[in-house]
Amino acid sequence: MYYWVQASPSDFSGTLPQPRSGHTAVIVGKSKLVVFGGLVDKKFLSDITVYDLENKLWFKPECSGSGSDDGQVGPSARAFHVAVSIDCNMFIFGGRFSNKRLGDFWVLDTEIWQWSELTSLGDLPSPRDFAAASSIGNRKIVMHGGWDGKKWLSDIYVLDTMSLEWMELAVTGTLPPPRCGHTATMVEKRLLVYGGRGGGGPIMGDLWALKGLIEEENETPGWTQLKLPGQAPSPRCGHTVTSGGHYLLLFGGHGTGGWLSRYDIYYNDCIVLDRVSAQWRRLPTSGDPPPARAYHSMTCVGSRYLLFGGFDGKSTYGDLWWLVPEGDPIAKRSPLEALPQNKDDSVHSRKESQSEGSAILELQKRLEISASVSSSGLQIVDELEDREFLELASGLIGDEVSNNGQEIQAVRDHWRKSAPSSVKLKELGPLLRDYQRLITRHYLANGGADLTPVESRFLGKDSHRFYHIKSASKLRMDDIPKLLEEYKQLSSD
After folding, report:
1. 336 Cβ partners below 8 Å, 6+ apart?
2. Nearest Cα to 155, choosing from 121, 119, 184?
3. Under a CB-based contact definition with an 8 Å cutoff, are residues 358 and 414 in contact?
4. What ranges does the record list as Basic and acidic residues composition bias (predicted)?
């Protein structure tokens, strides 16, 4: 059994990466997780954010080196590129900026945080995005497929990171259909390719293995389509496949509702390809899973998996989730728990957490919703930890804010003056969370004894009707006027 646990602010210190999709996140040197690039609200990113695995610290390194534009250090902004780590280096190739496909090639030395643009030799791959790549041993990189702006690709390139020479691999026999948005994962001597979007647009669910990548084996390069027993994943692209132990973990991605309907379906299921039994199986998980998404990243950190970012057709995510095995210290952690920041605060923080948790349990009982904190999945987030809330404040009043109290008040004043039709979709998440914060604090301020101070402002059982909603995506359009009405009464106190 594995458990989904949304990361708590106390799991990390430092500056978390901002929301994005189409980024890359790779483990470099077994001690660092490096997040690069991506896309948010039509803005392409070029930043680097690093997670120090030992110190549980996120930071933005000061990088040096050559740049591509206007004195910028490192690669230009991009998304849907490939990134592969070899030793202490992260190699970047291609991707997209706006409608332009990129074909430049970069390396980041993470020991000195220096970018270098590489001039490579041999059979140079064409510019592309949505390709897939993996390392071969500790020296070479293999890249497959992608989209060059005109056609889907099915070529295979191998890069020697010592000589910086590319070689297009000549493969005979049956070839997989061209594709992009797929995954390519090196498993011992074979490259496994799964899914993606193919020529003409269909989403695929086929699995292929490529041999002939290991020189010592003297094998003729060739593809084999694998049809494994078990519960195979549905066709998808924009998913992740992460290697951990004796299996590969596939998560998320998106498909379509069929040739006639053509609507997108986003996934949040976990499917395992068991390398020992050579079959597919569903990974049993407990806890509320993260919202469905594609073009996210999923990284193996010890015995845990760390999910970050992604896109669901409407929203770009910046949340962090752990997928942990049974027995992990955080496996059954309540979403409301905040782990102590340091040893001095441990006893005080634990008592505060227990007090608030029990009070909220009582509140849930009185509102006739789930009394189990862990099963409800509701997480009351402080304003200063609600990045969307703070970003909205910044957008409303820019640099005029001099303290956090003014930021919070500015957003609440904005919603108090708003008509339901003027509330933007991107505001619904912060609005719902602030509504839940206000209800919780009204109740806790009253010692958890009764709900009279809150209930006196509403009529009957309809009060607090949105307290149990975990995500704004669960709201209907006709809920927005009612939510805003309740919010205005709550925030006017």
Report:
1. 353, 356, 357, 360, 373, 378, 379, 380
2. 184
3. no
4. 342-354
pLDDT for the residue numbered 199: 78
Q: What is the DSSP letter of 233?
A: P
What is the tens place of the pLDDT at every residue in 166-199? 999 999 889 999 999 999 999 989 999 999 998 7
pTM metric for this prediction: 0.69
Which residue(s) pair with 74 in the sheet? 67
Rounded to an integer, what distance in angstroms lies between the CA atom of residue 199 and that of residue 423? 40
Cβ-based burial of 216 (10 A; exposed 0-12, middle 13-18, buried ≥19): exposed
pLDDT band at 416 (very low <50, low <70, confident <90, very high): very high
DSSP-derived 3-state class of residue 303: coil
What is the mean predicted confidence (pLDDT) over 259-278? Answer: 84
Q: Which H helix or E strand runs over 241? A: strand 240-244
d(CA 241, CA 109): 25
Q: Which residue is associated with the tokens 């099963």?
A: 375
Please, what is the Cα angle at 318 between 303 and 152, to 5 degrees?
85
In DSSP notation, 97-122 reads ETTEEEEEEEEEETTTTEEEE---EE
CA–CA separation, 298 and 305 (whole Å): 6
CA-CA distance, 138 to 190, in Å (whole number)?
15
Length of the chain measured in residues: 493
Alpha carbon distances (Å) from 199 to 94, 146, 178, 204: 20, 11, 6, 10
Beta bridge partners of residue 191, listed in sequence order: 186, 210
Q: Are 14 and 310 in contact (CB under 8 A)?
A: no
**Nearest one of 119, 118, 78, 108 to 95, comparing CA atoms:** 78
Q: Which one-letter amino acid corresponds to residue 101?
A: R
Are 242 and 249 a contacting pair, CB within 8 Å?
Answer: yes
Res 273 pLDDT > 70: yes
d(Cα 396, Cα 411) in Å, to the nearest integer?
Answer: 8
Categorize the per-residue pLDDT at 402 as very low, low, confident or very high, splitting at 50, 70 and 90: low
Please give the Cα distance from 464 to 365 (Å, whole number). 12
Cα 398 to Cα 254, 378, 385, 392, 406, distances in angstroms: 36, 31, 19, 9, 12
CA-CA distance, 99 to 120, in Å (whole number)?
Answer: 24
Give the contacts of 238 (CB within 8 A, at least 6 positions apart).
181, 252, 253, 254, 294, 295, 311
d(CA 428, CA 435): 10
The β-bridge relationship of strands 183-187 and 190-198 is antiparallel
The contacts found for 337-340 with CB under 8 angstroms, 24 or more apart, are 337/8, 338/8, 338/9, 338/10, 339/8, 339/10, 339/11, 340/10
Q: Which of 42-46, 172-176, 271-275, 386-390 has the lowest mean pLDDT?
A: 386-390
